[in-house]
Amino acid sequence: MPVLVASDLDRTLIYSAAALALTMPDARAPRLLCVEVHESRPLSYMTETAAQLLTDLGDAAVFVPTTTRTRKQYQRINLPGPPPAYAICANGGHLLVDGVADHDWHTRVLARLADECAPLDEIREHLVRTADPVWARKHRIAEDLFAYLVVERELLPDDWVKELAAWAENRGWGVSLQGRKIYAVPRPLTKSAAVREIARRTGAELTLAAGDSLLDADLLLAADRGWRPGHGELADTRWTAPAVTALAERGVLAGERITREFLRAAHGETPAGPSR
What we know:
The chain is α/β, with parallel strands linked by helices. The protein folds into two domains: 3-110 and 189-266, Rossmann fold, CATH 3.40.50; 118-186, Gyrase A, domain 2 (2-Layer Sandwich), CATH 3.30.1360. 32% of the residues lie in helices and 26% in strands. The strands form four sheets. Strands 5-1-13-14-15 form a five-stranded parallel beta sheet, with helices on both faces. Strand 11 (173-178) and strand 12 form a beta hairpin.
């Protein structure tokens, strides 16, 4: 039976220049491979070692990029290795099969959101009304499924995100702060639901996963084994689960370690010891 590997992308496998966290002397820094270009500028990177490991993983498992990005944002990424047969975008709102959105899956997602959550327009209106232009730089709607703000973190009031989360909770929505973005996402809109659907279609009996944010917690809990890097919301809150390994590595080196652990597990090898 195939092994299914579902991994978050940003700040898990791929990293912007600001998120690389290269703390070693320049002469010892790893060689980097650009995997995303936006508006003719390089945007996201992996180490060359991670790129080779991911290529090898594509031959050993069903690799599924699993992201909160919209389909358009995801399609800017050019990952090494075989083109993934499946990908998950919009936090599970879209399931791509050979690059094409599965209409039936999306219809099922919309029906569940309509039954269980306050409408997107109510959430959007609240964000527009309560977010201060002093620190809220952009208001965005993603795939007509969820909303997010681009903010100046140093100006963001400490309690605003907590207050938003409490308000959203009563309406069936969750809130996640990732870098300069604050996401408001319907709670039934999950990566794990889409991963379970792919596992059903492929017959996978072992699911591996990785992620760094609170939006990845359900994905990690649904997997047989998971990894989280030493940075991000999950690390900041010291989130743990029995089948999830908390790595010490931060930044792009965490992405390399995660791809290495995926490949080891896909080959049935004994897990490596705790990271230092």
